[in-house]
Amino acid sequence: xxxxxxxxxxxxxxxxxxxxxxxxxxxxxxxxxxxxxxxxxxxxxxxxxxxxxxxxxxxxxxxxxxxxxxxxxxxxxxxxxxxxxxxxxxxxxxxxxxxxxxxxxxxxxxx
Length: 111
Fold this sequence. Notes:
By secondary structure, the protein is of the alpha+beta class. The chain is built from 2 helices and 5 strands.
């Protein structure tokens, strides 16, 4: 997951959130050296950008190693163009350099 530009922690507000112990442990495992609090901030920023229309591409075409045809089962957003992919629409799943599968619109890889 690409990270949002970092704000110094001295410029952040302390917020308390209650998480299930299992969720916190899974977040720690996923976050690795990044730390689970930074991961949660990244997830929340991505959600806010997606829902507010302030979406910014996180990937470029050079990040995609391979793609396969797929059908969206729920609303997705292309990681290259930001285009919304509606349920039951054809789409691509792109394999990134990091081994992640990401949603792609059909025409997003056309050059």
